[in-house]
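note to self — DONT lose this again. spent like an hour looking for the file last time. sequence + predicted structure for the chain T wanted, 376 res
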Amino acid sequence: MPEETIICSGLIERIGFDDAKFKFKTSTEVVELITPILNHKVGLELLAQQLLNSDTGILKSADAIDIVGHRVVHGGKDFSDTTEITNVVKEKIKALSSLAPLHNPANLEGIEVAEAIFPNAKQVAVFDTAFHQSIPEHAYKYAIPNEFLDKHHIRLYGFHGTSHKYVSEKAIEFLKKEHSKIITIHLGNGCSMTAIKDGKSIDHSLGFSPVNGLIMGTRSGDIDQSIIFHLAEKFNFSFDEINSILQKKSGMLGLTGFSDLRDIQAEAEKGNKNCQLALQMNAYRIKKYIGSYAAILNGLDAIVFTAGIGENSSFMRQIVCEDLTFLGIELDVEENKKRSNNLHCVSTKNSKVKILVIPTNEELEIAKQSAKLFEN
């Protein structure tokens, strides 16, 4: 930074599985491993080994790193901006773990491992919730007694903000319009949608915690809340057990036995009816949010697909966009099948709404925000 030059990049997939995949790329080589990576700490230590490997020449020592930027999912009421990490900040991130149990504990573990590996670097937290601070009160407030917001700060916070911010800015550049109405659709293991007006988030599908809204890899998305009480009263589930069901055993995993969309699509093609139905349910839920967000935006200039599934699954994009011509959304099926590493418009020439596939770059956004914090 500030040149935004990528020196190396990497990805770790399927943490906790025996066939976890580690990929590390530099300008001259690619290191790929398939090995058991039991947790995030093991994965980060493997990453550090590559960064400090004398053969790669990436880092001569850990002191070469000035700043480490971390994605932190839930910032609650305390964090609306990028923040330097202190012991007090870590305690607050830990305290918010009950609201994002799949994320904040792992985010905190990443911070602590990075502190050990890069002891002289400044550690920075970039919060998923920050971009959604612009959501108006009538959208973020729940229809429960006022004291729960006033005293206990129970409200819609929103997540995946770093991704939604990045791709919406790219979409606005593409549209070249002074005023814009955009829906961004972040589809990965976690999924969310944001209604964005003139670059500002005005509504979002995730809420107080990242469990509601769309159907996700292991999370249920929207359900009737009375189901929670029914499970407790009728079947004697504890609230911890119900929380685990909704967070870790539901979504696509609960519907199909698989949490990875690639596995689900492969099984659906083989005739697995559970997988076929789950894909239809997933697309149906996204369509419902497109309709509601088009209404609150009072129009629509573009929808944006991003993240692992949104960028790579032409099938999901196709079934989401089917039968939306009333809203002016028309997909070019052949263009949609093409792959691109850059912004890719996959709508027909006659489509009133642009359908954009924009690769998210949360790493760059985190780097930019982290560097900006110390630019003076």
